Amino acid sequence: MAVAHARAYHQIAEEPRVFTDPFAIPILGESVMTETYVDHGLDPELVRHRRLFIAARSRFADDTVAAAIVRGTDQVVILGAGLDTTAYRHSNTNVQFYEVDHPTTQEWKRRRLSQAGIAIPDALTFVPADFENTTLAAGLAGAGLDSNRSAVYVWLGVAVYLTRASVDGTLRYIASHGKSELVFDYFYPIAATPHDPTAAQLQARANRVAEAGEPWLTFFTSDEVRDSLVSVGYSRVEDRSATELLTFYGVPTDAPASNAGPHLVHCGTA
Ligand SMILES: C[S@@+](CC[C@H](N)C(=O)[O-])C[C@H]1O[C@@H](n2cnc3c(N)ncnc32)[C@H](O)[C@@H]1O
């Protein structure tokens, strides 16, 4: 809900629009102007920076999906989909979309779609699965994903909530899909950037999500993430910090160049 809120607020906020999503506000089902618990009391500039990163990572994923479709890819897998609306925005293509999520979240999303009057595209298959057990590969194969054809995987805002074993297992599974590319984000260890001016606020946000029952569990440095990806078979790895991603999209930001916080990775096996 917190990331969906950020995408929705981004549609109306007084900032450069990086990502346009006509479904972002309707799917939210509540006022965009309500502050979410993860933002309460934090520095407004950092709240804005986080919101812009969430918008920019979706834009990057969208651009990657669009480029892959032009090259002939017709399978897109959204892992840990939450209230992501990619499939609803590309429903006029011949692309098959798979939304993987925890069964409880997926049921909640279906109710939200129904309440918002947003139709589920014919080309979308819901795949309930838990990354913490082995249901992912079986679930996608059973849903019809063809691992002999190329696919794009999008995995946003999820890895930090999983155990390291589940992150590694999921990366290994995706890499085993021939001709695949992946867009995902990870969090840099807060302890590795103790002098970063945002460290205290990042820790405050970490404490807040932990109190809400969703603790951040897995962090990587850039070297660690690259080593993990290369070891399971990815051959090209692009890694951008939040500030680098915003600069990539021409968004003015006062944030200092830093590894702290979330990073976005684009990698491929072919
Ligand atoms: C912060 S939300 C991000 C949602 C979406 N990717 C987005 O960017 O809006 C985290 C998502 O990860 C999913 N998730 C967390 N742990 C999971 C698990 N063990 N198995 C499956 N999904 C999980 C949640 O259900 C939720 O949809």
From TrEMBL:
It is an enzyme of class 2 (transferase). Its EC number is 2.1.1.-. It comes from the Bacteria. Keywords: Methyltransferase, S-adenosyl-L-methionine, Transferase. GO terms for biological process: methylation. It holds the Pfam family LCM. GO terms for molecular function: methyltransferase activity. Exhibits S-adenosyl-L-methionine-dependent methyltransferase activity. Belongs to the UPF0677 family. This is S-adenosyl-L-methionine-dependent methyltransferase. It comes from Nocardia amamiensis.
